[in-house]
Structure formats: structure tokens, C-alpha cells
Design goal:
Length: 275
């Protein structure tokens, strides 16, 4: 039995033994708050941390020597110096590419909460990922189990100990004025898991303005995480179906370092640091 299987079984056993204040088993969808029980997930367990670090190192290994290729639609993606057999023979590689493929092709909500958001009606549609040395990685007819496996992997990549970032990363969102008021310097909050940041500021700006235009009651906000402020996360740029987004996954406890409003651009910039 491989070490990744042992870690997973140990993790599941912990979930079975622990209960939250509702009396339900931990690790399930919280009935009261309608979100995943973070206490039950036991992100601080040694087993979770070892597995997360191993996956982040696997990302480094499998993307070393990758090169850009042009897709049929004219956009860029990466080609990894691995064959399909090499990926299938390595459970970590297969888990990572399964997760990155489903995540980066717009199935974000289904990955975050498969039990709630998975749509069986589209399960028959294959999902294409990055190119390999002898073809292209594909999740054929993705199932609920594929999405559950993707969620577990994305969680670990988001919370793995981070390598130093090559540059600042940002994330564009739209928040209510009340939410922005609470994000004053010194405030701490848990951003959860699987938050996508980008190395390209313009991408974040486009997301922020699009979200605020869709809901005029909210304000455009750009979260900025400095290259020295990221303690957790994984760069998945070379695994994404959209190489142009320069994507960094992260999450966890975060502190607001500064907050500034640009009246001309009508956007907030909130600088973060992880704790």
C-alpha cells in the first residue's frame, strides 16, 4: 500500500472519530453554515502536511522542462516532458493533473464542493488538460469520484508550504461595502482553500471589474499577496489549461497589511500577508 493511500486512510479515520457541535461527523458539509467543516478536515495533521508537501514537490518535478505550445483555438498551454504512461504509473502525477484539468476548465464550484455542485448531465463530456510528450492529458467522462479526488488534491496544493514567489500575485473580486469595511489593516480572516491568484495584474483587474459590473451593489477589490507574504500555496501555471493566467493556488489564515482606495479607478487594493 503506497504512502499516499496510508495518509488518506489515516485522515478518513480521524474524520470518523471526531464530531462537531452539531453531533454530526466532521469533514462533512456543515448543516448550519452550508460550507465544509474546516475543523474536521484537520489541515494541521502531520499526515496532511506530509502529503501536501509531497504533492507540491511533485508539481515541481513534473513541470521541470515544460514548454509552451499553441492550441487549436490560438491560446497557449504547456507541454510536460512526461508520457501518459509515466503519469498513469505515478498516483501523485495523475491526481495532480486530474485536479488541475477539472479546476482550470471552469469547473471550480464542482471541485470545491462536488457533493453539492457536480452535474451528472455533463459527466459524459471529456475534459482536456495540458499536453504531454505523447499526446494530451484528458479526464474522460469525469465522475463524482474524479471531482472528489480533485477537491482533495486542490486543498493540499493550496495549503502546502509555499516556495518563494517570483513576483507579487493578485486576485480580483467584488465585495459588499460592509465586507470591505471589515478588512481594515490588522484584521485577520480565513480565506478558505483553493483561492486562485495570478501573476498578471490585468487579469485580476478584469475579474474585479466584471464582478462588480455584474452586481452594482458590490465594489471592485484586488487582493495583493506580496512575494514575501505567501506561506502556503502552489504555482500551477504549467498545469493549467490557460497558461496566460499565471495561476497560484493558496488559502488559509490571512492578515490585512494595508488597504487603499483609488477613486479614479474605483477599485480597492488590499495587501495581504499569510499567518
Amino acid at each position: 500500500m503506497g504512502p499516499h493511500i496510508v495518509d488518506r486512510l489515516n485522515h478518513l479515520q480521524l474524520l470518523l472519530e471526531r464530531k462537531c457541535t452539531t453531533g454530526k461527523r466532521c469533514g462533512q458539509t456543515c448543516i448550519a453554515k452550508e460550507k465544509e467543516c474546516r475543523l474536521g478536515a484537520d489541515y494541521e495533521s502531520p499526515g496532511f502536511k506530509r502529503r501536501a508537501l509531497r504533492l507540491r514537490r511533485a508539481v515541481d518535478a513534473m513541470t521541470r522542462g515544460a514548454d509552451l505550445v499553441l492550441k487549436d483555438d490560438g491560446t497557449d498551454t504547456y507541454r510536460l516532458p512526461l508520457t501518459l504512461d509515466e503519469v498513469r504509473d505515478n498516483p501523485d502525477y495523475d491526481d495532480i493533473l486530474n485536479a488541475a484539468t477539472l479546476w482550470s476548465n471552469g469547473n471550480v464550484n464542482s471541485v470545491r464542493d462536488p457533493e453539492k455542485n457536480f452535474d451528472p448531465s455533463i459527466a459524459g463530456e471529456p475534459v482536456e488538460g495540458v499536453f504531454l510528450a505523447d499526446g494530451r492529458y484528458e479526464v474522460g467522462s469525469p465522475t463524482l469520484e474524479d471531482y472528489q479526488r480533485a477537491r482533495d488534491t486542490i486543498e493540499m496544493l493550496s495549503l502546502a508550504p509555499a516556495k518563494p514567489l517570483k513576483s507579487d500575485v493578485t486576485r480580483g473580486v467584488a465585495l459588499s461595502p460592509e465586507a470591505v469595511d471589515k478588512l481594515e489593516p490588522g484584521a485577520e480572516f480565513d480565506m478558505g482553500i483553493a483561492n486562485s491568484f495570478t501573476g498578471f495584474f490585468q487579469v485580476s483587474e478584469d475579474f474585479a471589474y466584471a464582478a462588480s459590473d455584474e452586481d452594482p451593489t458590490k465594489e471592485a477589490v484586488i487582493f495583493e499577496l506580496g512575494s514575501g507574504g505567501a506561506l502556503r500555496g502552489t504555482d500551477i501555471t504549467m498545469l493549467s489549461a490557460w497558461a496566460g493566467e499565471d495561476e497560484f493556488l493558496t488559502g488559509g489564515r490571512t492578515r490585512v497589511a494595508s488597504r487603499e482606495y483609488n477613486e479614479f479607478e474605483e477599485v480597492w487594493t488590499i495587501t495581504l500577508e499569510q499567518v
